[in-house]
Amino acid sequence: MITRGKAMSLLTLQGVSKAFGDITAVDDVSFEIRKGETLGLVGESGCGKSTLGRMLIRLLEPTAGSIELEGIDIAHLEGAALKAMRQNMQIIFQDPFSSLDPRSPVGNSIGEGLKIHGMNDADERHQRVLEMLDLVGLESYHARRFPHEFSGGQRQRIGIARALILKPSFVVADEPVSALDVSVQAQVLNLLKELQNELGLTLLFIAHNLAVVEHISDRVAVMYLGDIVEVTEREMLYSNPTHPYTEALLSAIPIPDPTRKRSRTILKGDVPSPLDPPTGCRFHPRCPIAVEGICDTEKPLLAPVGDGAVHRAACHLRAGAYRHLDPTLRSA
Ligand code: SF4
Question: In what order do the strands lie in the sheet with 72-73?
């Protein structure tokens, strides 16, 4: 379900940061997730996207900033207030096997959340578990089986059933198909999409691969070394990428048609250490169009690309005050 224009936001982040000792994993991030949409969050391993996802459902507490879910700041909730909010926000993990109890039938694992949140009637819980198994395309007899008796795709269906049984309004799917065979990935993506439409879910879908995110997202945010560097509608991002990092990620996606060619942007070097991030724009040591004296000294903020606020990027040359210095514009 796509909500555009003045769509209501379900979740709003303002200046959210997370530090682990000297490492700033997420640095002053602000954006919103609209009610009923899927926001794809993409970036290389270690860029902070999973840390950000975990903060949004309060598995981690932010070091700074506010996170409002349906108008309530959940960033620093504790005790009973946090427990009550947890019903509303759930997570689907990359590897459901490690999050399932190997000695417990999966029906128990799926229904565990109901028990924690006060549904004491075992028959009622069992009925809800069967409904969830049906919803995710599994059979009722699967409730009695153990995690090792399932394939990777089936285990991910169990993870989805467990996340959705409490009827949350917001779900973080953290690399939910990365560990699956390509043939099974499409099935799980389609299932997530169907459930999102059917249940009106709001999803944050985390992946390291822009090709995976394209099929499920309404909008996409690109993350690099703890910062959001570009965010916009899906069609806009794939047809008109603005940040040089997004361009590089997109250029790495293979095109199935051998007659079509896409110029490949090869990035220099590795992702820098978050222990000692570069000054100015964190992407500048790898950026093919970086300008000395600007990019290495001034940190770019997310700014509108063109008119309106639909498309924003954090780049001095593409969305900031130094657009006239963009070499790709000058050569156009
Ligand atoms: Fe490249 Fe400079 Fe833009 Fe950063 S601000 S992405 S270094 S051009």
Answer: 23-34, 9-20, 64-69, 72-73
Cα(148) to centroid(ligand 1), Å: 48
C-alpha of residue 98 to centroid of ligand 1, in Å: 39
- Please report, for the chain, how many H helices and E strands are present, in that order: 12, 12
Q: Choose the residue to mutate in 225, 296, 317 for probing ligand 1, maximizing ligand atoms within 8 Å of C-beta.
A: 317
Range(s) within the chain of domains with CATH label 3.40.50.300: 9-217
Q: Is the CB of 317 under 6 A from ligand 1?
A: yes
Where are any strands of DSSP class E within the chain? Answer: 9-20, 23-34, 38-42, 64-69, 72-73, 89-92, 170-174, 202-207, 219-224, 227-233, 303-304, 312-313
Q: How far apart are CA 240 and CA 246, in angstroms?
A: 10
Ligand 1 atom nearest to CA at 294: 2
Model confidence pLDDT, tens digit, residues 186-197: 999 999 999 999
Task: Tell me how far the alpha carbon of residue 229 lies from the centroid of ligand 1, in angstroms.
Answer: 10
Query: Which atom from ligand 1 is nearest to the alpha carbon of 289?
Result: 8
pLDDT tens-digit profile of 153-175? 999 999 999 999 999 999 999 99
- Report the chain's C-alpha Rg in angstroms: 21
Calculate mean pLDDT across residues 53-78: 95
For ligand 1, whether the C-beta of 283 sits within 6 Å is: yes
CA distance 64 to 179: 32
The finding on whether 234 has its CB within 6 A of some atom of ligand 1 is no
Whole-number Å distance between alpha carbons of 325 and 52? 33
For 264-300, how does the pLDDT look when each residue is reduced to its tens digit (9 = 90+)? 677 877 888 888 899 999 999 999 999 999 999 999 9
**CATH code for 9-217?**
3.40.50.300
